[in-house]
Known about the structure:
This protein is α+β, with helices and mostly antiparallel strands. It is 28% helix and 15% strand. Helix 9 (402-416) runs parallel beside helix 11. The mean pLDDT is 93.
Amino acid sequence: MGGKVRDTADEFKGAEFRDEKTKLLFAYDYENRFVIRVWGTTFKPALYKECKRLGVEIYDRVMATALLTHKGEQGGRVIGAMGINVRTGEFCVFKARAVVLCTSRPQRNWTFSSELRGISTFRPPTNVGDGHAMVWRAGAAFTMMEKTIPSAFASGYAFPPYGTGNPYNTWYACTIVDAEGREVPWVDRDGRVLSDVSQRYRLAPGQRFFLMGGGASSQPHPGLYEYMGPRLIPDLQERIERGEFTLPLYADLPSMPEYERKAIWGLMVGEEGKTRVPILQLYTEVGFDPERDLLQSYEFLRGSMMREPVLPQERTFGEIGVAGGLLVDWELRSSLEGLYGAGDLLFGAQDHSYAATTGRYAGRRAAEYAVGVDGGSLSWDQVEAERERVYGPLKRREGMDWKELNAGICRAMQNYCGELKNEELLKIGLRWLEEIEEREAQGVCAEKPHQLMRTLEVLSILTCSEMILHASLARRASSEFLHFKRLDHPEMDPPEWHKWITIRLKGEGVEVGELPIDFWGDLEENYARYR
């Protein structure tokens, strides 16, 4: 399709991380070479052009807000979706014989304050659980919604991801110096000091491969020792406190070998995630020169964008790792006929590889289904009700804005659905959210389509928070895997609770169910059947 995955211009010819035969570039472990560097900014334009070539109709800047169901019935067959153009305010209705939903996972449920906290989430700020909320209202089943974790991967006080100097993944393995220019040593998993930059990408004696590495940390967990890669000295904080190193720390790109510097600044920063415009382009425009300038790191200061300690109640639905979501079968079909899920919307999903494979598969299955069905019966009452809900904030001339509403929801979640839970706390929290929905949310206002988009996002955050509380009430046992602690049910992972808890909206109430932990059946047999 035109996405660039090889160094076709020979920009990195001769680099340690380049395979000269294939022109592929590799990251991290230069000996095993199993992580490929790509030119990520070429992918979306390539996909867009291919879709246009195939005749796909694309509606940019349209935010989906609700699903259409046959005759407008909750739990009925899904026959389309509704949404709003966030630039013009135009309300849109899409009829379809099948729908694939792939809207990622909820965020900003526990921490948010644009004035005090910065980014508040490592993932894109538009990942707020819109898909979870609209499918929930349509009556689909969800599972694992009670799993939450402290947001240590990117705290609520973080600066823009990859916008500060650090030695983690995208910046791996950048040289770090202190305020006096003293270089912080790198060591392998066994604490052996590495004398040059090249060794930071190499295995320790006797090691087969590594998966981890980068920043300073305490000694690795015994179970992760085998895969621990090179990193900064683990006792860096203690040595800072003793005066051996002076804060703040800086990423020293100028001292890096040319190819490593270019790989970090321009290939990794610039071609990964959200880094092209807000980091590479903006910093370059204001004069940052990686051959001359150092970039401050916020390690050990409030504001590190990676793995910063947070309070137990400052949680997330999942910055990294598997999270709860839509319950689907082997065909990625939800409990609602005509609705398929893909990517981070699904329970147990994680990251790009999962999204790419499930998206391709769900699309194929949805297309097969659509061939054999009619368009269903559209309910204009359902359309009018959604249009009234969506435009409500625009009709109000005064009231709270979306930021205040988001902050209020977060405070309720911190207080009543934090690290420690019990029946009373969860019930109070649910009542808080219900009252916010019945009162404050009905008074929130927006002046223009962009603000309306933000307001609708927060209403989705509110719905997702209620789902999390319902699931937390339903699981009457603690679970280490789910990072779930019930003070009134302290036993950790009792056998009778080794199962999935499902929830779905039915009328005005919530229906709770359960599934065996291996409800999907024989893995090899089913894979062969459905592949």
